[in-house]
């Protein structure tokens, strides 16, 4: 049926030609990067911190020639994926991006973040070393300015603890003992839960134990997810879940919210940004919580982990990198901006000036604990180093699946096995992509 | 000029317009039938009832009171939802109406034209085109979304209204339906008569065929409207600016605020309730236009 | 079908093509081109050089069938396929069975609640899958579900509907809830179009409604049933939104629970669109084979107007 073929072939050929044409054309539809003086520059800023548009207002009023528009994104992964897809496709990326620390190697590896060392290097003094390291990856380049950090802290119901005669646990053994006591007193109550849906939480705990899941040696990466330190953490939690004194359900679910409300969850290993979560999910329990440092593995060598925290970065697709870098610098070092970040965007600013200028009183939910922010500062100081690799998302995704199974089975052996699964998946992925990996 | 025509073999299912059954006189009421139907209705309504009740609770009450006990905070919740990013929710609703309305209209027109051509003309390649269309129905849309995004990104069109509208305008299923409607409702001799009177093909289509296909077109429009209204994957991938989001993506975003923010469950629940209202109103209002009998040979889950 | 005299053929030869043009152009741009690009992507992969940081460290290279092999031999892929098949075997018969039952009950016309029931059962169609899954999620989680209080009141412990043994049914329920109404309306309208004289005679002879349904009505609407079946099957094989939304609520749904979730995970979480493209092509081909095969099997009964 030759006659039937021809018109259709024509259409398909047109489609293919259009595809190849689109693929090969460079898409420089906008004009070049430089702007005339006095011309208004429009910047887009992708972020998921709440109320960022109010924070940014401060900049917009003071800088009418550089206007920043906030595009609120879904938290975490989806925004990064959108950015990476836009970078790969050649258009659609914003000028400024909120980049979580653990995502920075992935983003740099995909050539998504611009090096703004020329513009912002002097700002180094304003940030703690661990945060600065996270945005430079140990090199001379600077891929963003630290915006906020998330030193982990332990929140607990002081009324329940008082009733049971418990004190804030100083070591993990104390924590386990407290967990047992809480659960034995009331079989419905748990000191905490093991969440298979929050890899950042588990990474922070492993960080506190001294683990660093990735490492760099010259141009070779190494992956050490199932090193001795992380295994210690995994079997610790596996043991508690197996015993039944720690719950096995994920956090941030309606069930978990209900548990915070009705007192079936009496403790939470959260981070400095915790009050906002507690207030939003369990407003009725206000005033009943207290905060303390995380329990320690070794009281002689105090350590802490990080959960969350991001930098503000300029993307490589931005046509106004200079102005974007100016904005970032204002956002993260200007005292008014820092104050707005702390009070309106509900983040704990990374700047070392923050505690002095913006965090003078405790958060509303913890009005009963005036030393809230000094504990937080202490926690930040003792945070151990941790290197993130270029495929954090693969590792985190593997965590979700592997520890989901382990948490559901409630067997401690499955927890350590899950670590091996994570290790293998991460290692395989890096090798497959062509990275040089040790072992 | 005698034209030999063969009427399309119309199965019993294609009697248009008039109700196919006369009023059923006095038949005994069957309690079994009533109970079964009510059970079905209860099953389907229960989650909706839950949403209505949950929307009346404050954030503190959502997780601490008995599920089916209503409270009085509905308007407070709506106000909170309204306060999110300066009334962005209503913009989401307007966006959704735009995507669904314009996308639906455009795709109906495209499908009508294509279905008409397939039903009423003989031409080389017809069978191949029809099989292509059918093959298009069987392709899962999620598989298309990512490469569609990459292709649109190469021409810099992502994150615009067009990036959601254009892919919505082609619906192989709509073309399939229109083909059936055209074959069933537009008698060829009427078309022939119009042509004999001197009308061109386009005039014949516009003045003769389209009005006769009208009820089928409304059906196709409504299908597409609902499909686009409820679509999540395409706008999720195409859009980065939350001011362009439809309701599905916007509500999903409220759930994913990031680990260091509380989830906005109450706003999501209230938003879900408000988002159902327009579609329900649409269904109830346009009930008599749902001429699915003509499409009885072609259905979709 | 009209047979046109040859003398008119030339003048009108262009007409069908101009009617088809918008559809064909859109089809080429938004269906054919993406599919072609997907196939192209599935044969490529990314290779890094050095530490992999910084510009120019990633290049796209030819991968041959590597992505396909990795995808098909992924230990999670086969379980996801069998799971989806099991899911389909639960959803499709249940949903169509309920739809058929409700349609027959409505058509028998022996109830006063017909309009109310019809509207109510159709209502879930107005609810997008993401919202429906969230609502049912609230109803499933034992601590906050109203069923918990009800069952506790009756002295029974509420089942954990998101546990390993129940989760498949939990997800299936959402699909059944959302899809029954639509299929019911379709089957109902097919039933309404049956001329009454076809079964009035049987009724006069004393046949019950059930007998009439089995012996007369169902055989007549068989083409509708077949098409509903095929399209439900296709939709079921593509299940994605419901498990995706339920996943963060429990431990029992992995990120690769269904094949399409694996595609999403590869593309969006692992940023490996090449693997995702390969898996998509596999799924598309499999869907094709299943549906075309099934349609060929039941012959052209469903296509009454096929030439």
- Residue share in helix of chain B: 55-70%
Shape of chain B: globular
How much of the sequence of chain A is in beta strands? 5-15%
Overall pLDDT level of chain B: 80
Number of strands of chain A: 9
Unreliable residue stretches of chain B: 1-23, 293-301
Morphology of chain A: globular
**Number of domains in the coordinates of chain B?**
1
- Any idea what the radius of gyration of chain A is? 24 Å
CATH hierarchy, class of chain B: Mainly Alpha
Radius of gyration computed on alpha carbons of chain B: 24 Å
Kindly name the structural category of chain A. alpha+beta
Mean pLDDT across the residues of chain A is 86
* Oligomeric organization of the protein chains: heterotrimer
**Largest interface (CB < 8 Å):** B-C, 118 and 118 residues
Describe the fold and architecture.
The complex is a heterotrimer of chains A (439), B (301) and C (307). Chain A is 47% helix and 13% strand. By secondary structure, chain A is α+β, with helices and mostly antiparallel strands. Chain A has 2 domains: 41-149 and 308-379, 3-Layer(aba) Sandwich (D-Maltodextrin-Binding Protein, domain 2); 150-306 and 384-433, Periplasmic binding protein-like II (D-Maltodextrin-Binding Protein, domain 2, 3-Layer(aba) Sandwich), CATH 3.40.190. In chain A, strands 1, 2, 3, 4, 7, 8 and 9 form a 7-stranded mixed beta sheet that branches. A two-stranded antiparallel ribbon of chain A has the order 5-6. In chain A, strand 5 (214-217) and strand 6 (220-223) form a beta hairpin. The N and C termini of chain A lie far apart (59 Å). Chain B has a single domain (49-59, 68-295), classed as MetI-like fold. Chain B starts with 30 loop residues before the first helix and ends in a 16-residue tail after the last helix. With 307 residues, chain C is mainly α. Chain C has a domain at 88-253: MetI-like (MetI-like fold, Orthogonal Bundle), CATH 1.10.3720.10. In chain C, 68% of the residues lie in helices and 3% in strands. A two-stranded antiparallel ribbon of chain C has the order 1-2. The longest helix of chain C has 32 residues, at 77-108. Classes of the chains: A alpha+beta (439), B mainly alpha (301), C mainly alpha (307). Chains in contact: A-B, A-C, B-C. At the B-C interface, helix 1, helix 4, helix 5, helix 6 and helix 8 of B face helix 2, helix 4, helix 5, helix 6 and helix 8 of C.
């Amino acid at each position: 049926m030759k006659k039937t073929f021809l018109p259709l072939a024509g259409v398909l050929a047109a489609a293919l030609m259009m595809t190849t044409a689109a693929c090969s054309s460079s898409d420089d539809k906008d004009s070049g990067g430089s702007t005339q003086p006095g011309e208004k520059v429009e910047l887009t800023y992708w972020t998921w911190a709440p109320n960022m548009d109010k924070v940014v207002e401060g900049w917009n009023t003071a800088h009418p020639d550089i206007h920043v528009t906030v595009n609120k994104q879904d938290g975490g992964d989806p925004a990064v994926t959108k950015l990476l897809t836009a970078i790969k496709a050649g258009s659609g990326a914003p000028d400024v991006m909120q980049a979580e620390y653990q995502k920075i190697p992935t983003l740099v590896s995909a050539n998504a973040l611009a090096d703004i060392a020329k513009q912002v290097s002097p700002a180094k003094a304003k940030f703690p070393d661990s945060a600065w390291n996270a945005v430079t990856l140990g090199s001379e380049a600077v891929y963003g300015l630290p915006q906020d950090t998330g030193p982990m802290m332990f929140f607990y119901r002081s009324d329940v603890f008082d009733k049971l005669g418990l004190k804030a646990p100083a070591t993990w053994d104390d924590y386990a003992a407290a967990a047992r006591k809480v659960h034995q007193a009331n079989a419905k109550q748990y000191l905490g839960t093991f969440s298979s849906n929050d890899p950042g939480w588990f990474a922070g705990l492993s960080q506190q134990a001294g683990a660093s899941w990735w490492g760099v040696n010259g141009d070779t990466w190494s992956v050490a997810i199932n090193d001795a330190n992380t295994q210690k953490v995994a079997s610790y939690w596996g043991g508690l879940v197996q015993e039944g004194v720690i719950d096995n359900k994920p956090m941030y679910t309606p069930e978990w919210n209900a548990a915070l409300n009705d007192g079936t969850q009496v403790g939470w290993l959260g981070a400095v940004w915790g009050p906002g979560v507690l207030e939003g999910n369990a407003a009725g329990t206000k005033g009943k919580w207290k905060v303390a440092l995380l329990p320690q593995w070794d009281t002689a060598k105090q350590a802490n982990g990080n959960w969350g925290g991001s930098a503000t970065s300029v993307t490589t697709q931005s046509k106004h990198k200079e102005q974007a870098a100016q904005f970032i610098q204002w956002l993260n070092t200007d005292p008014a901006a820092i104050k707005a970040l702390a009070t309106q965007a509900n983040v704990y600013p990374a700047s070392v000036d923050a505690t002095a200028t913006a965090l003078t009183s405790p958060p509303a939910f913890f009005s009963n604990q005036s030393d809230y922010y000094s504990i937080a500062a202490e926690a930040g100081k003792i945070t151990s180093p941790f290197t993130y690799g270029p495929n954090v998302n693969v590792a985190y995704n593997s965590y979700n699946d592997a520890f989901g199974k382990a948490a559901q089975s409630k067997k401690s052996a499955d927890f350590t096995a899950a670590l091996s699964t994570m290790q293998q998946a991460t290692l395989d992925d890096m090798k497959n992509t062509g990275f040089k990996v040790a072992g | 000029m005698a034209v030999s025509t063969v009427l399309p073999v119309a199965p019993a299912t294609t009697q248009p317009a008039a109700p196919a059954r006369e009023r059923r006189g006095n038949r005994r009421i069957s309690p079994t039938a009533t109970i079964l139907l009510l059970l079905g209705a209860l099953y389907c309504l229960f989650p909706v009832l839950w949403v209505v009740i949950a929307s009346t609770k404050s954030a503190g009450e959502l997780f601490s009171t008995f599920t089916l006990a209503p409270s009085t905070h509905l308007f407070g919740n709506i106000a909170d939802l309204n306060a999110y990013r300066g009334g962005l929710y209503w913009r989401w609703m307007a966006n959704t109406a735009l995507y669904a309305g314009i996308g639906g209209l455009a795709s109906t027109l495209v499908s009508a034209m294509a279905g008409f051509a397939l039903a009423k003309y003989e031409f080389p390649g017809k069978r191949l085109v029809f099989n292509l269309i059918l093959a298009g129905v069987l392709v899962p849309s999620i598989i298309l979304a990512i490469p569609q995004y990459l292709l649109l990104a190469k021409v810099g069109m992502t994150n615009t209204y067009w990036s959601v509208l254009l892919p919505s305008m082609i619906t192989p299923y709509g073309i399939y339906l229109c083909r059936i409607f055209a074959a069933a409702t537009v008698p060829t001799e009427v078309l022939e008569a119009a042509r004999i009177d001197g009308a061109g093909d386009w005039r014949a289509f516009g003045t003769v065929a389209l009005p006769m296909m009208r009820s089928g077109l409304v059906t196709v429009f409504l299908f597409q409207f609902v499909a686009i209204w409820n679509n999540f994957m395409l706008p999720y991938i195409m859009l980065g600016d939350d001011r362009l989001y439809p309701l599905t993506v916007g509500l999903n975003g409220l759930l994913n605020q990031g680990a260091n923010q509380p989830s906005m469950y109450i706003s999501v629940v209230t938003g879900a309730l408000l988002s159902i209202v327009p579609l329900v109103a649409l269904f109830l209002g346009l009930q008599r236009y749902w001429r699915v009998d003509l499409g009885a040979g072609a259905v979709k889950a | 079908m009209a047979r046109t005299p040859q003398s008119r053929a030339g003048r009108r030869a262009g007409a069908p093509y101009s009617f088809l043009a918008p559809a064909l152009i859109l089809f080429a741009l938004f269906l054919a081109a993406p599919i072609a690009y997907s196939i192209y992507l599935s044969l490529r992969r990314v290779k890094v050089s050095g530490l992999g940081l910084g510009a120019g460290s990633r290049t796209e290279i030819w991968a041959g069938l590597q992505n396909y092999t990795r995808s098909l031999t992924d230990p999670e892929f086969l379980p996801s396929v069998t799971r989806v098949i099991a899911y389909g075997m639960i959803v499709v018969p249940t949903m169509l069975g309920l739809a058929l039952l409700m349609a027959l009950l409505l058509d028998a016309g022996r109830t006063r609640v017909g309009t109310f029931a019809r509207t109510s059962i159709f209502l879930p169609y107005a609810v997008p899958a993401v919202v429906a899954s969230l609502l049912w999620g609230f109803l499933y989680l034992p601590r906050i579900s109203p069923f918990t209080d009800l069952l506790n009141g009756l002295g029974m412990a509420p089942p954990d509907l998101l546990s390993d043994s129940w989760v498949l049914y939990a997800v299936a329920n959402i699909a059944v809830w959302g899809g029954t109404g639509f299929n019911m309306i379709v089957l109902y309208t097919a039933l309404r179009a049956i001329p009454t004289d076809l079964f009035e005679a049987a009724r006069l002879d004393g046949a019950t409604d059930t007998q009439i349904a089995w012996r007369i009505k169902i055989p007549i609407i068989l083409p509708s049933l077949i098409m509903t079946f095929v399209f439900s099957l296709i939709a079921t094989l593509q299940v994605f939104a419901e498990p995706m939304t339920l996943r963060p609520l429990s431990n029992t749904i992995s990120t690769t629970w269904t094949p399409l979730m694996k595609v999403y995970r590869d593309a969006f979480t692992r940023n490996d669109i090449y693997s995702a493209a390969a898996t998509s092509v596999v799924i598309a081909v499999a869907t094709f084979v299943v549906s075309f095969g099934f349609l060929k099997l039941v012959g052209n009964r469903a296509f009454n107007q096929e030439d």
